[in-house]
Amino acid sequence: MADCRIVNQNVASSVTNIDNLATKYANAGTEFETAFKAAIAEMEGDSKDALIELFDKSYKEFVTSLEAGLPAMIKGMSSLLEGNRDNFEKVDAQIAESIRGGGQG
Question: How many Cα atoms are found within 13 Å in the side-chain-facing hemisphere of 28?
């Protein structure tokens, strides 16, 4: 079995950075949507409607959503790391408490 160790502050800092990246991805997705729709704003006809439908059905949520898209996936990794960091911290405290209690806790 491999040794298990984390550097609490490094993980906590990375969690914050990853959360910020998720927000940046969501903002970039919104900017992408704005740019895309501006590019086709003056188009007319069924092809414009088809482009809007395609974007709204297949791209919008994926690039902009902090609940279901790529930004959400990034945020999910942040949550996973934070959960593991928190578990390590709690287990370490429990082991220390057990040792201090003479192994009786």
Answer: 11
